[in-house]
Amino acid sequence: MLIEFIYTSHAKTPLSPEQLSTLKKSCIEYNTQHKITGMLLYNNMKFMQVLEGDKETILALFKKIKQDPRHHQVEALILNPIDERNFGQWAMGIADISNESIKPDFLSDPNIVNKALSKKLLLAFSHHLIEID
Predict the structure, then answer these.
(1) Domain segments of the chain as ranges
(2) 32, 78, 104, 118: most buried, per Cβ within 10 A?
(3) How far is Cα 41 from Cα 51, in angstroms, rounded to an integer?
(4) What 3-state DSSP class applies to 52?
(5) What is the distance between the alpha carbons of residues 23 and 48, in angstroms, rounded to a whole number?
(6) How far is the C-alpha of 5 from the C-alpha of 80, rounded, in Å?
(7) What is the pTM of this model?
């Protein structure tokens, strides 16, 4: 079954552009092998990510993500069956929005980051995404 899965988390330390680029490369390699697509937003040590793929594959990856010592406060927001991918163009798109004219705690604001708005938020950023290398 094809699903979309959205979660948020907090990095334990700030990530440099070089570290985000390295993360993107490893995500693309893993996701390509496992037929996963998605997008990651990074804003001042906070992440929001959407993953699309086979349910068992995504849940196994999320288990690894929860155990990753580089971040904490991992919270699942959405797990929905889908008929087609919304982020199929990316094995993993990553956008660092920390330096944009967005408030620093943007991805911590419960009025913005909630189940109803998270997918719309990711889709909106995907249409205007300038990815990191």
Answers:
(1) 2-127
(2) 118
(3) 12
(4) strand
(5) 14
(6) 7
(7) 0.79
Short-list 63, 57, 55, CA closest to 81: 55
Residue corresponding to tokens 């909630």: 114
CATH 3.30.1330.10 holds for 2-127 = no
Locate all alpha helices (DSSP H) within 9-94, ordered by sequence: 17-33, 55-67
On whether the CB atoms of residues 77 and 114 are closer than 8 A, the answer is yes
CB proximity list for 82: less than 8 A, separation 6 or greater? 2, 3, 4, 52
CA neighbor of 93 nearest in space, from 59, 52, 129: 129
Q: Give me Rg for the CA atoms of the chain.
A: 14
Render pLDDT for 98-128 as a digit per residue (tens, 0 to 9): 765 555 555 556 655 556 656 656 665 555 5
Residue type, 5: F
Asked if residues 43 and 107 have their Cβ atoms less than 8 Å apart, the reply is: yes
Whether the Cβ atoms of residue 63 and residue 28 lie closer than 8 Å to each other: no
Task: For residue 56, give Cα distances in angstroms to 50, 52, 63, 75, 121.
Answer: 15, 11, 11, 18, 25
